[in-house]
Every structure is written in C-alpha cells, then in structure tokens.
Amino acid sequence: MDSQKVDMYLMANAKFFQSSQIPFIRERLLAMDESKWAYIQAVDLKDPTTLIIVSVLAGGFGIDRFLIGDTGLGVAKLLTCGGLGIWTIVDWFLIMDLTKQKNIEKLNAYL
Amino acid sequence: MTRNRLYLLLGFGLFAGYVWLTWSWLQTENHQTFTPCLFKNTTGIACPSCGSTRSVLLLSHGNFRDALLLNPLGIIMGLIILIAPFWLLYDIAFKKDTIYTSYHKAENFIKIKWVAITLIILVLINWAWNIQKGL
Questions:
Q1: Is the pLDDT of residue A107 over 80?
Q2: Cα separation of B39 and A86, whole Å?
Q3: d(CA A50, CA A64)
Q4: Which range of residues forms the domain containing residue A70?
Q5: Does residue B33 register a pLDDT over 80?
Q6: pLDDT for res B24
Q7: Is the Cβ pair B50, A81 closer than 8 Å?
Q8: Domain count, chain B
Q9: Closest-CA distance of chain B to residue A40, Å
Q10: Which residues of A have a CB under 8 Å from any CB of B?
C-alpha cells in the first residue's frame, strides 16, 4: 500500500495501539493489498482513554470488561461486586493495555 | 484467552471466594459488619450484587427461601462455587477443556442481542429491589 496512506493511518490511530506494535503494523500495512484498505478503516477500534474513564466510573459493575469484549469476565466482575473491589482497582491499571491488545487482535484479522 | 489462563483465573477466583466466605462467616459470628464494595462505600447505595455474600451464607445453612429473598444472585454464585471446583479438577485430571468450550459457548450466548437485553433488565430490576430492601 502507499506509504503516505499508511503513515496517515498510523498518525491518526497511533493511540489505539501499543507503541511497540507500531513498526509491525506499518510493515504489514505497507505489504498489504490496496483492496483491503476499506476493511482496515472499518475495524471498530476502542479508545483506551474512554475505557479508563469507564473503568474508574463503572468498573465495579464490569462495564469496562463488557466493552472490550470480555463478556465472561464482565459477568464475573458484575456478580462479585468488582471482585470485592480489588479486581476493580487492578483493572484501573490494566484496562488501557488490554484495550490496545484487543485492538491489535481485531486489526490482525485483516493484516 | 487461552485455556490455561482461564483455569488459573478460575482457580484463583474460587480460592479467593472460599477465603472470603470463611472470613465473612467468622465475621458474622462476631456480629461485625464490613463491606469491601467500592460503590456502596462511596455512594451509600447498594450495588447490584450487594447481599450476595449473606445470601450464600444463608444458603450454606440450608435457608433457601431467605437466600432467594435477600439476593437471587447468591443462588447462582452458590451453585458456581459448589460445582466449579469439581468441574475444574475433572478437567485438569483428565486433561480436557470442557470448561473452556462451555465458557466460550456461554459468552457467545450472552452476546446475542435479546439475551443481553433480558439479562440487563433482570440485573437492573434486581438492583432496584436491592436498593428498596436497603441492603
């Protein structure tokens, strides 16, 4: 794919991925066929900043876990009152990296 | 999530659950009240799963009706905490992945739109009931 297009995509979407993943994504995007561009743009990426806000406000109910697609863990978190409050606090620190991980997994389906 | 990670999490969760139950059982013997619930401690209002520990404790004394009236979620949790250890041991002993496949099936089932909506409404009703009971 066109390098200008790839760099533009990365500039706009860098916050969705871990910085260590950016070179890998760039490499794969450059090697990719132009026809997949529409799919890449349509991938539903979650914003880590939104998730940390949700986690702080509604983490006790597991809403953050539901949002990133971990439905089973979300139910567990909801039923146990946020893992007796401990899991909630642990997730405040984990949720941003988890979101970025989920984003790269979603993108990986097309790379 | 891989199979081993899920089993590790489940094992740790069950262990923590039993430790918590034993501790709160000892606490009720001494007539003390303490809640780790962040939501209840900050707002003073009960959260959707408030009272489930008391419900499971009532269930362990065979008091099914009171447990159901206190918080129906306690019944579900009581069943999980009773069955899951044996299921986990079975899977580990025979090197199978029945929990893992059932977990994924359950996850996909919950993600169906109308199932999700029904469950959300049920949890909200239960929450309203919790607040009304003043747990």
A1: yes
A2: 12
A3: 9
A4: 3-108
A5: no
A6: 85
A7: yes
A8: 1
A9: 24
A10: 60-61, 70-73, 75-76, 78-86, 88-89
**Backbone region of residue B19 per phi and psi (left: phi > 0; alpha: psi in -120 to 50; beta: other values):** alpha
CB nearest B47 (choices: A60, A75, A83)? A60
**Beta-carbon contacts of residue A101 (< 8 Å; ≥ 6 apart):** A18
pLDDT at A45 over 80: yes
Helix ranges (DSSP H) in B30-97: 38-43, 52-60, 64-70, 73-93
Question: Domain of B28?
Answer: 3-133
3-state secondary structure of A62: coil
Say if B12 is an interface residue toward chain A (CB within 8 Å). Answer: no
> pLDDT tens digit string along B38-66?
778 888 888 888 888 888 888 888 888 88
Question: Is the distance from CB of B85 to CB of B14 less than 8 angstroms?
Answer: yes
Contacts of B81-89 with CB under 8 Å at 24 or more apart are B81/B14, B81/B17, B81/B18, B81/B21, B81/B56, B84/B10, B84/B14, B85/B14, B88/B7, B88/B10, B88/B11, B88/B14
ipTM of the complex: 0.75
A56, A64, A79, A87, best to mutate vs chain B, most B CBs in 10 Å: A79
Neighbours of B4 (CB within 10 A): 11
For range A47-61, the mean pLDDT: 88
Cβ-based neighbours of A89, under 8 Å, separated by 6 or more: B38
Considering its fold, how many domains does chain A have in total?
1
CA dist B27 → A87, B8, B99 (Å) = 22, 28, 33
